[in-house]
Amino acid sequence: MSSALEKPQIIAHIQKSLNYTVFDSRWIPCSAKFVCMGNFARGSGVLQIYEIQHGELQLVREIEKAKPIKCGTFGATSLQQRHLATGDFDGSLNVWNLEVPESPVYSVKAHKEIINSIDGVGGLGIGDGAPEIVTGSRDGTVKVWDSRQKDTPVVNMEPMEGETKRDCWTVAFGHAFNEQDRCVCAGYDNGDIKLFDLRNMSLRWETNIKNGVCSVEFDRKDINMNKLVATSLEGKFHVFDMRTQHPTKGFASVSEKAHKSTIWQVRHLPQNRDIFMTAGGAGNLHLWKYEYPAQRTKKGADDVDMGVAGSVNLLQNVTLSTQPISSLDWSPDKQGLCVCSSFDQSVRVLIVTKLNTV
Amino acid sequence: MTDRHPSIAPPLSNHRHVVATSVYVSLRRESEMPLIVKDHTWTQNQNTVYISVPLKGVKPASVHVICTDEYLKVSFPPFLFEVFLFGSINEERSEARIGNGVAVFTLQKRRDESWEQLFTNIDKDKQKQIREQAVLKVQQKEAEKSKAKAARIQQEKKYALETMMKLENKERDRIQKMKDEECARATAELDFWRETQRKTAEEKENQQKTRGTGPQDNQPVNQKTVTLMRNTGDTTSGQRSRKQTAKDLPAPRSAGCIQISFTPRVFPTALRESHVPEEEEWLKKQAEARRAVDTDLAELDDLREDERNPDWLKEKGDKLFMSGNYQAAVNAYNLAIKLNRKIPALFSNRAACHLKLRNLHKAIEDSSQALELLKPAVAANASARLKAHVRRGTAFCELELYVEGLQDYQAALEIDPHNAALRADSDKICEIIQGTT
To answer: Residue ranges under compositional bias (Basic and acidic residues) (chain B) (predicted)?
Structure first.
């Protein structure tokens, strides 16, 4: 019954060309501003804060730093402070107060090589427990930081002695539904996905999806872990049902091939945890909805519960550019508003309509 | 200008040109002495004169009328009818109807009187004058008419253009208005949402302040009404306040370290780095080699079932090699190779036997053959290649072909750089080479 008019539409509301390569863009919570992070051609890092006014982007502030900035998150900060945690090409983790950006609130040389991915949990009034930041780097390690502890990470996930290192490309927090529980999921370039349980300080689950993992995200950080989406090279992404873990088979999953190229990013809609958007290497965006199966668990051969994966439907797709869209962020305040940045040195603000009737 | 030739001197405009040509035509006709029409009829009443002129078969289109207040001329070649009117008429109010083989002129008299006759008798000069005047007048009238027409056309065009422009502008304005409305609506929504966000943020701040322990930021907010509402002794809000203060307190996690290892694979490279095509090729070759059995030999008939199996023969050969019976091992390998020429291990092992038997040339041949079969060079056949290179190298050295031997040892070292024995051997060979040169 749903005609083309009833599908959600992805509308490019504003587009702005920048004069630097932009790697990440994040909404500042509770505002109509967002931060773009990247590096100038002269090799220095830049943070730009834009505000949406009258249908256009106004540059509010530009901050230049010594090293190019790869990724950032507001996830571990309180709503009043709204400090931005960034990882840069040098392996340093810095937490900035954007009002006073001259010196960071917290700074540590986290890794020996570039920090590829960063995530925060415990802030913004979401969830319980201490605010923590996790960083994943090309040196193969994943470290969890607490801004009250200087210089040493709170948890360090590193390769064993003698093991060849694989780059860690993405990290995500999840399962943080009370003060003690927390999980970190990390994706590596050889296709490994590892789930670490920080309460037990152990590896809870691992699997390999054959192609390098570009992006992982739980559908919600602050609930008992429900779904995990992992995207990879060569256009595939997997949705794992995380409610039921089988001792040997792990989690049930459904995979989908889309985009015909690397899927760079996946982001769940903050207002609806079954809707997510994937950003592809051909400059296109796909909007998906996950449908749960009739029964989420079933009895396996040895009478142990196994999860059952549901199905994924494509709601809409749109091609915005010819270069990969490297980052995507939904606004936590307005449903359907999102900002994306791509390697054609431009940032776009998009509006996705009809998400409340999907 | 003579009698018969009406003036054609005035400059010709487009419209007058028509007049001029017809005048010219009639001019030509007149020089041929047009036929004067005399069988016209006329009637009159108090204020109008009716003249009816038969057209005598001439088409109405070629009838040309010149009429002034005192003179009427109708020329329809080859006929001509002209009359100098008795009284003056009002040329503008008169009309001519040409059709049905007759031309009827309805002339309005200027003065309401009854004419005794149609013609006046005037002398030739006067006639000529009147004729010229008439022609001039007609020409003038034509000119005026054409000018008026041009002016009118110009005006109409202008008007049309103006209306078009007005319509387009209207359309454009309408579209612009729609766009602006949309824009305004979207921005209004955004502003509204921003406002609500700000308000909720402020409320949250107030909430924080009323229960938090000494906030650091200095935003002045009107807290009084908010605190009154919140401090109603609600147990849940009490709990929340405790949690707020407790929120910052979960101590930093006690440091932990989790050691991880990465997935081993058949070929320990990730998909994107793997030499998958070569590896596939190697696997296929191995599979083929297993299947290729040369059954075309007559000697096979008297072999036992076991002895037809290259694997069994290889095992036999290996055991014989271990026990030191090198010749027998060679025989076993020979048979196996006869059955299946594609298994590199057979050649390699036979090379080892020949080496022990000091059949150095055969050893070199066999290890070369083995290396041939061990292409493409992948991780899986590394150890096999290593052995083959070492055997061939040894054979070369025994034959005192040290340079070739060194080459093989170098290749072996490339495969396995950590092998100390190999390194020692290749160093020795280097020395020997340098010693002899």
So the answer is: 194-208
